[in-house]
Structures are given as C-alpha cells and as structure tokens.
Design a protein that fits this description.
CATH superfamily of the largest domain: Immunoglobulins
Largest sheet: 6 strands, antiparallel
CATH topology of the largest domain: Immunoglobulin-like
CATH class of the largest domain: Mainly Beta
CATH architecture of the largest domain: Sandwich
Oligomer: single chain
Number of strands: 6
Number of helices: 1
Radius of gyration: 45 Å
Number of domains: 2
Distance between the termini: 150 Å
Order of helices and strands: HEEEEEE
Structural class: alpha+beta
Amino acid sequence: MKKEDNKQQHPPVQTAPKTATKPSARATPSNKTLFIKRHYIGLVVLLVVSLGLFVACNSSQKIAETPPVALRTWLLVRAPDAPLPLNKTITVQSRTEDSQGVSHVELYAVQLPTGESNLVLDSQAAPFNQTTFSAAQTIIPTQRGHYAIKVVGYNKRGEQAESETISFDIE
C-alpha cells in the first residue's frame, strides 16, 4: 500500500488568456518615477532660490543711503518776551550735528552793552566722538542793557555753523 500524501491538491487556477493590450494615453508612472520627479523639482526650486539669494547678497548695486547730515547748529531757546534780571544765570541750550562728528560749540556775545562784540562767552567740547551734541551754556549778565547772542558749532574738520541770533534786555 502506498502511503497517501497529507497534502491536498488544488485544482489549477484559470486565468484569462494573455492578449496584447494597447498602452493607454494615461499611463500611470511607477513609484520610482514619481520619487525622482518630486526630488528633481525640489532640487530645481532650491537651486533657483539659492541663486536668487546669492545674487541679492552679492549685488554691487548700492542700496539708497541716507545723505550725510551737513553741519548745522540751532538754538533750543527763544528770546524772552520781557527783560531779564541783572546778575541772574541765563542758560542757553543749543544743538549741533554733523555726520562726521561734532568737536565743540561756542557761545558768542554778538553785542554787549559795553559795545564789545563777537566775544566767546563759553566753549564746550563734545565729550566723545558723536554726531549730535546738545549743549547747555550759561552766562551771568553783569551790566544793564541790550544783549545779542548766538552759538557756533564746529565739526571734526574745523568747519563751523552758526545758529540764529537772539536778543534780550537786562534790567
């Protein structure tokens, strides 16, 4: 007697006959093709963005710069409406600016009651290299009469700029 096999036999599977099929116009790409296309597009985008940044950063074209500030000096006080008292301190505030740096400011007496003119009453140096310098200079009028003062600011190149002149009376 033959030993029977414990394995069951399956009937053969029938498949449809293979016929030549015409490729459709909408053939679907394989996963590998899609992977390559996506990475190729990403690489192209990355290269274009990188090139744009490189050109923008290394451009020899200058960006519009603000023009340098010319030397100028102006008073931060106005002439008083009434006469001022004798022997009282008067503080004259001014500001000088220059893009290359302010060196110092001088307070001038344009006219004094004694007839003297263009005397330096006070001089202040800018404490460090700065482009704007605000000064508070004082005078004490010791004579009654008419006064006229101005401030002259100087830059590091020795150039000067004058403020307007203000006048006042001392009684």
